[in-house]
Amino acid sequence: MTTHEWWRHAVVYQIYPKSFADGNGDGIGDLPGAISRLDYLRDLGVDAVWFSPIFPSPQCDGGYDVSDYRDIDPVFGSLADAETFIREAHARDIRVILDVVPNHTSSKHRFFLEALQSPPGSPAWQRYHCLRGKGDNGELPPNNWLSIFGGIAWTEILDASGTKTGWWYLHLFDTHQPDVNWNHPDIEREFDDTLRFWFDRGIDGIRIDVAQGMIKEAGYPDVRDSNDPALLDPHAKPYFDQPGVHDVYRRWRKIADSYDPPRVFVAEAWLDTPEKRARYLRADELHTGFNFDLLTAEWNGEKWRNIVTASMAADALVGAPTTWVTENHDVRRAPTRYGGRVVHRQVATAEHLALGRVRSLAAMYTILALPGTTYLFNGQELGLEEVIDLDDAQRQDPHFWRTKGEHLGRDGCRVPLPWRRAGANFGFSAQGGSPAWLTQPSTWSGLSVEVQAGDAASLLSRVRAAIAIRRGSQALLRGSFAWDETLCRDGIVAFRRSVAGEPTVLCVANMGTAPSPSVNGELLAASGEVGDGSAHDGSAHNGIVPPDTTAWFRLGPDVAASEHHS
Ligand code: GLC
Ligand code: CA
């Protein structure tokens, strides 16, 4: 395995376990399926894999409701399968990150089952947030907190005979995801043990779910300014971003640092400014955190430039690398977002998606050229779109069900990958098998790995090519960053990466509507066709980057020093 601090410039591939590959033919992705696709990930060139939760879970929230943090859900396989995955991934130089959920457990976790056996207010309930309700008989919730998935964040506890007790427990997400009380020593121990358990099995890092959560303000005050329960809200919330959470991370950092090589954290902290995010990345806390600013940004050059500048400035203050994310399992897939506005259940047109795919690839070329770590969500490399028109009966996201369909939920980005051009579920299941747990659109035949791998101009081939170039380029991995101020106008995002002893790389992302000025450099790679400009002497391409395209150029020593032509 190569060098330390790999996480400063890695490409990390997120596996949503139910959706990546199915090994046993039940139509649900699993560890044996993922093991069988490790060569695919090696060929894609990723440095690490992050698995969304694979622990035992009733799957009320796609595994983010964990009933046992130190085992594997039988749906995904066994502990032995996890160990095989880790070993086989390492053999291919791929690191492994698992997803720990410390804000809440499943309602089937042993701590909660024990609480349910005990009267409210008794010690077993102190591992959770169990409060007397308001009103004469406690019939009203203890405060005005709302669930991020819709409805109120409290559920009244019933006694053994099913009678209301006037006591309530807190769940910022689904009813089946009770928030744990981080002031309780058992909780601290449960997660210390969990980190060690997985670190001892050789995993390289942990993603921390809802990392701005965990600690609640003493006294459970009402939410004051705005009671929008969204994860991302500029108003302070008594249940998010509390000072005490940093003590937890300082403690966790010591555990990670006690391993050789040190293990790494990535925080899923939804915070509305890069400065707030950077506080989680101080030297004695977490190594990295997701930067979600591009995840929610439109296809707009000026916005991208502002985000890149602000993110890198904030992270530099604490010496952390910046991370870049344009897709994950919680948001609409990029081709759907970038193609134009899609309202609720309205299905995108073919033209809309074609444009969205082109832009999504250009976005990947852009984030792969920025300094720091880039995340790719499984299927992003294929250009899969959000599946809007799933049968409601198939939907599993509690956000859909708790809002009675007002929020379409996140199932549409979790539809299983198409591996083969034909056959039952497009080769998602190794041996044909049952229908996939979410039905794939018939058009995904053309987006399948089998079809795209054989086509040098496909999205998949172009993503592979970009990652390969990045891996071989010290300028792209470790080089300094500077905006190309001359090119940065009219929706163009252009920057240079330079390192001693190598030609500078210039990345030009055209998010505008007119072709870019001609660039005097050697074309390294591009997300689409790049015009040949005026130079026909074969030495340089004088590339003109069309709208919705990103191109990488290698600048000769003379060009790097002087300027491009315009
Ligand atoms: C995070 C996860 C999301 C999950 C939520 C509750 O935001 O990414 O999928 O629903 O936490 O655990
Ligand atoms: Ca399976």
Textual characterization of the structure:
The protein has 566 residues and is α/β, with parallel strands linked by helices. The strands form 3 sheets. Strands 9-8-7-3-2-1-11-10 form an 8-stranded parallel β-sheet. It has a 5-stranded antiparallel β-sheet with strand order 12-13-14-16-15. Strands 4-6-5 form a 3-stranded antiparallel β-sheet, with no helix packed on it. Helix 6 runs parallel beside helix 7. The chain starts with 10 loop residues before the first strand and ends in a 5-residue tail after the last helix. The protein is built from 16 helices and 16 strands. Helix 4 links the parallel strand 2 and strand 3. It has helices at residues 17-20, 31-36, 38-44, 79-91, 110-116, 185-200, 245-257, 274-278, 301-318, 334-338, 350-367, 398-402, 449-453, 459-471, 474-478, 557-561; strands at residues 11-15, 48-51, 95-100, 130-132, 154-158, 164-170, 205-208, 264-267, 288-289, 323-325, 373-377, 480-483, 492-498, 504-510, 522-526, 549-555. Calcium ion binds at residues 22-24, 26, 28, 30. The site of calcium ion has 6 residues, from loops.
Question: What is the gist of this entry?
Answer:
The protein has 16 helices and 16 strands.
Task: Set out the fold topology.
Layout: E1 11-15, H1 17-20, H2 31-36, H3 38-44, E2 48-51, H4 79-91, E3 95-100, H5 110-116, E4 130-132, E5 154-158, E6 164-170, H6 185-200, E7 205-208, H7 245-257, E8 264-267, H8 274-278, E9 288-289, H9 301-318, E10 323-325, H10 334-338, H11 350-367, E11 373-377, H12 398-402, H13 449-453, H14 459-471, H15 474-478, E12 480-483, E13 492-498, E14 504-510, E15 522-526, E16 549-555, H16 557-561
Parallel strand pairs: 1-2, 1-11, 2-3, 3-7, 7-8, 8-9, 10-11
Antiparallel strand pairs: 4-6, 5-6, 12-13, 13-14, 14-16, 15-16
Helix pairs in contact: 6-7, 11-14
Calcium ion binds next to loops.
